[in-house]
Specification:
This protein is an all-alpha fold. The chain is built from 10 helices and no strands. Helices cover 70% and strands 0% of the residues.
Length: 198
């Protein structure tokens, strides 16, 4: 929505006169992501303080029994997932000119994430699905499924490495593709611009 808003208010035209489309797209994702990460960090610290302050056992589930390693892996996968999905949505956002058109456009990428949610739900409900291991190494689903496998001890080092390398490669491709689409569509207003046309 931030990409569409800049396009709708014509701020993108001014900014693109001074910086490259790749820099603008990366800056948008990092800026909005930094703010979101700050909010999550403050929320997490508030929860941690509450658990510490009510240490008599009535504070609910023990957040810290996962261990710092598992929490660090979850944070890393959160950041990778955020970056990956943000570039997909920012690229899609560059192809529309009005915020009203954005909701129908973001439906397709959102639907692509549903299989990962289904596999995670099935795995949480009982025995892990046989699809969990292979799907966790597919870059688009890795940020959702690999933290689950790491925390449960179901993954081995090379599977995590494959998922990390694949996800980072996809992020690189999304930056390249997104900046090309952004360059071709950011200055066009009116109707929706197709990905191929952009």
């Amino acid at each position: 929505s931030a990409v569409v808003e800049e396009k709708q208010t014509r701020v993108a035209e001014l900014v693109l006169a001074k910086v490259s489309t790749a820099s603008m797209l990366v800056g948008k994702v990092v800026g909005v992501g930094g703010l979101g990460l700050l909010q999550l960090t403050l929320l997490g610290l508030t929860y941690a303080f509450g658990v510490w302050a009510l240490a008599d056992g009535s504070a609910g589930p023990d957040l810290f029994r996962l261990g710092t390693g598992a929490v660090a892996w979850m944070a890393l996968w959160f950041v990778i997932g955020y970056i990956m999905y943000s570039f997909v949505f920012a690229t899609m956002g560059a192809t529309v000119s009005r915020l009203e058109d954005l909701q129908s456009l973001t439906y397709v990428p959102s639907v692509l994430l549903l299989p990962a949610y289904a596999i995670a739900a099935v795995s949480l409900a009982g025995a892990p699905s046989p699809l969990l291991a292979p799907m966790s190494m597919v870059p688009i689903w890795s940020p959702l499924l690999m933290p689950f496998r790491i925390v449960t001890g179901d993954s081995v080092w090379w599977e995590v490495a494959v998922a990390l390398i694949g996800s980072l490669a996809v992020i690189g491709l999304l930056v390249w593709f997104g900046s090309r689409v952004y360059r071709g569509a950011a200055l066009r207003t009116g109707g929706r611009v197709g990905l191929r046309e952009a």
